[in-house]
Amino acid sequence: MDAGELDDVIARAKAQRIPKGTAVFRQGEPTKSFFVLLHGRLKVVKVTPSGQQVLIRFVNPGDIYGIAKALSREDYPATATAVIDSVTLVWPSDIWDEFMTSHPSMSLNVMRMMGDRLQEAHTRVKELSTEEVERRVAHTLLRLIAQSGRSTEEGVMIDFPITQQDLAQASGTTFHSVSRILSGWESEGLVTIGRRKVVVSDVEGLSHLAEQAPSGKE
Amino acid sequence: MDAGELDDVIARAKAQRIPKGTAVFRQGEPTKSFFVLLHGRLKVVKVTPSGQQVLIRFVNPGDIYGIAKALSREDYPATATAVIDSVTLVWPSDIWDEFMTSHPSMSLNVMRMMGDRLQEAHTRVKELSTEEVERRVAHTLLRLIAQSGRSTEEGVMIDFPITQQDLAQASGTTFHSVSRILSGWESEGLVTIGRRKVVVSDVEGLSHLAEQAPSGKE
């Protein structure tokens, strides 16, 4: 986008602070707005009718999100909650079509971003369909450090507070299993675990484990 | 799109016949083209390094597909094979950006379609993460009859040849499990199974089974 286009887009946004722990929108609410995250981190979680939670993704600064209405849905399919204090830009949903048709380069970018998410979702479908739990957790961690890793003396740290429950909900397994797996990896020197903190000390070792031959899975 | 735009788009396409069993493109091949299916049915399958297959989706007439290059990928992430004799339109990948920027209403439609696929992929992630095998197979069948069902005297039939192996690869399970589950359902009068043919005789019963309380899953 050129500077003039960008000015027009920004001029029509409102900025909004989202304190840690609060929701930007909730699953089932009518889709009134779409968003770009300026600062901070969100997690997007879908709840099943029986109350089980599935972590759909983390939203990083620069990401567009909450575009359900733009895609002809009347309600948000999941809940987006701030993991740390965050700041977002907000636009009313009903300007989506006009925005995209009058800013074609923006719409190409949105398509690329949707393509990336679609590929990530298909990768998760593949992992959930063919890999046992330990490899899935390894792939989840490797994806997180690729998207939000920061090098430290201990290794590559996930750049925001993350719990073992988050990892379970992102890997299609239970808190109990994740906890058991991380303890094993910690004693093998692959990871270091703290309170809401995960550091991968041996990225190569974890990658090797993630790619090992399948042990078979129903 | 108005008629003039549509003429321009169609004028730049080539038509291509895809005999049953042949691939339009294969996983790993360079992305030279994107496509719209005119007639027939394709299945899109991703193979893991160890040779396990995951069915990503069926392509129906009117669907756009093979848009990997458009989304800045250099190779196709999966293989698309004709399930029945099919006919497709083909465009060179390098005209994608020009196409989308000069036909904004087309790009809005593509975004909506990608949004639908993203929601379907997230639904599968949710099912694979939280449901045991029988409910997943039920959801797969219900999705298939919603997308490609045809009413017959016996019930709602999936409108193209489909195998129990396909259902296994679309539900993240084994041929053996699908076979066992379908036999059970057949004796309960929920489905009728033939060679490459699945008919849902009791849609309400199958929906009820798909929504039953979870029995817990690692």
From TrEMBL, chains A, B:
Domain HTH crp-type: 131-204
InterPro entries given in the database record: cNMP-bd_dom, cNMP-bd_dom_sf, Env_Response_Regulators, HTH_CRP, RmlC-like_jellyroll, WH-like_DNA-bd_sf, WH_DNA-bd_sf
An example molecular function term from Gene Ontology annotations: DNA binding
Coiled coil: none
Entry keyword set: DNA-binding, Transcription, Transcription regulation
Transmembrane segments: none
The keyword Transcription regulation is annotated on this UniProt entry: yes
CDD domains xref list: CAP_ED, HTH_CRP
Gene3D superfamilies: Jelly Rolls, Winged helix-like DNA-binding domain superfamily/Winged helix DNA-binding domain
Gene Ontology cellular component list: cytosol
Pfam families, sorted: cNMP_binding (PF00027), HTH_Crp_2 (PF13545)
Location of the Cyclic nucleotide-binding domain: 1-94
Protein name: Crp/Fnr family transcriptional regulator
Species assigned in the record: Methyloceanibacter stevinii
